Amino acid sequence: MPQQDPGSRRPPEQSSQDPLNAQDPQDAMDRMNARDPYAMPAEGATAVPPPPPTLRTTLRRAAVGAVAAGVLLAGALVAVDDGEGDGPKEPGPVERAEAATTAGSPASLSDLTALIGDRQKWVESHPEDAPSLATLGTAYVEWARRSADTAYYARAEQALKRSLEAQPGERGNGEAWVGLAALANARHDFLAAKRWGETVRKQQPKSWSVYPVLIDAYTGLGDQKAATAATEKFGELRKGVPALARTADLYRGQGWREDALATAREAADRATQPAEKAEALHRLGELAWERGEPEEAVAQFDAALRTDAGHHPALAGRARALVALDRTDEALAAYQSALEQLPRPEYALELGELYESLGLDGDARTQYTKLREMVAEAKKAGADESLVLARFEADHGEPEAAVELLRAQWRGQHRSAAVADALGWALHRAGKSEEGLEYAERAVDTGVRNASYAYHLGVIQRELADYGPARRNLEQAVRTNPAFSPLAAPLAREALDALGEPPPGGPGDMQPPPPPPPAPEPKPKPEPEQEKKPQAPAPAASKTATAPSESPSPTASPSPSPAAAKSP
């Protein structure tokens, strides 16, 4: 049965007595659900309260140091008979979250909430339990990522630092270091994430849990070679759906669309837990959208939401595809729902651009204001949303400000395809198309099949009067995904129309120019006049006449033959 995950279930607030102490998890969830502004509709939602700590869970914590220590078998839980019933009990939400984390898979939001409440309660009476603190900190990171509540980043950092104080990473607390790497990735500090991850890998090269954070860090830095190596190593150490998902993402980033699709389908087929299945279906929806197949994309996003109603990114993906199908009212509602459940600035930008394409400039400005507010709140929490802010500034604000933001990203070694594309486009918008060309080409040269990247490159090339490549890239954009943006896609078609049809025989830059006609061979020079004149018959008897052979030639040398004329 699909698990209906109430996304409104937030982790319990911390007790005022201790920064990490928790109030009763069930009481906190009930009260927070009542006031939660992001509450999901009650229809189909079921709350799964965390069970009270039993002797079984207490002994498990003490024995194995929770899931963050990485000592549970992947996905396997051994239930101890409590004497109630004939066999092992069904795993509760805490156990399910532990199993998912141990297997490298996402937990549902309700299970994640239960795990956080359970660990908060545990560390209240066991403040030096380093593994439980590491688990709590990492769970906070995941909650912040899944809810867009950046306030949890500070809690995560505090819990992870306390874990390292209780047990340094050098003494076996690598999971706290992995948690700090995940936190750095979530804040878009990919260089710090790389340092933490490589520190763990150096000490524990066989620990598979470090490779997902390394993959994210390398991808954010634009280091495709390192990301590929980390993905391959992860697949060697951790078989199954998580490795398939990472491999599909790798293929997607390199433009290997068929391989990405086949691998993503295998991941979806093999996924068993609702949250894991929903993520796999969401990936299939994204791939369909990028191929310009909005109907297929909507079907996959709908399937993801049926499987796990707490998978809120599928709401935004669904909205994007509905725009392409001209189901505008549904798209607006889906975007608004996505922003209520998962207030990410990129969703505000997309909704604002949709309003702008409809001529609703006031509504668009409202979304753009929200975008700025979200970016400012993220900055207070230590998260860097410069990329999405720069994308907004380039098209709707101050292009020079966008260039400044993105140059800072580039100097910080954030050199992914997304940053390269955004910087190239911002430079073009700021009147520096020649400089922007290099970055736009770099984004496209990664191989990723992104219609927006191709559009940006084509427009820049057209500005520089490089019409053949411009036409090619603009055609690539509208062919890859004809409705890639409600604002930019129509502009791409207008630019193509302005360029007109290519010359007969294909674009001129794709075929060599015709060879010049051969030079005419030189004609022989006419013979001297004296030689051309017919000679009069010699007088019969004249002692003074001279023979023709004795007459001197008027030229120094005879005319060259055609063959001789060709010789150097």
What does this 3D model show about the protein?
- With 568 residues, the chain is mostly helical.
- Among the domains are: 1-79 and 88-165, no CATH class; 386-501, Serine Threonine Protein Phosphatase 5, Tetratricopeptide repeat.
- Helix content is 61%, strand content 0%.
- Residues 1-9, 15-19, 21-85 and 531-568 have low confidence and may be disordered.
- Keywords: TPR repeat.
- This is Tetratricopeptide repeat protein.
- It comes from Streptomyces sp. CMC78.
- Residues 501-521 have a biased composition (Pro residues).
Q: How many strands?
A: 0
Strand content: under 5%
Q: State the share of residues found in helices, binned by percent.
A: 55-70%
Number of helices: 27
Quick one: overall form? globular
Which structural class do you get from the secondary structure elements? mainly alpha
Instruction: Kindly report how far apart the N and C termini lie.
Output: 89 Å
Order of helices and strands: HHHHHHHHHHHHHHHHHHHHHHHHHHH
Largest sheet: none
Average pLDDT works out at: 82
Oligomeric status:
single chain
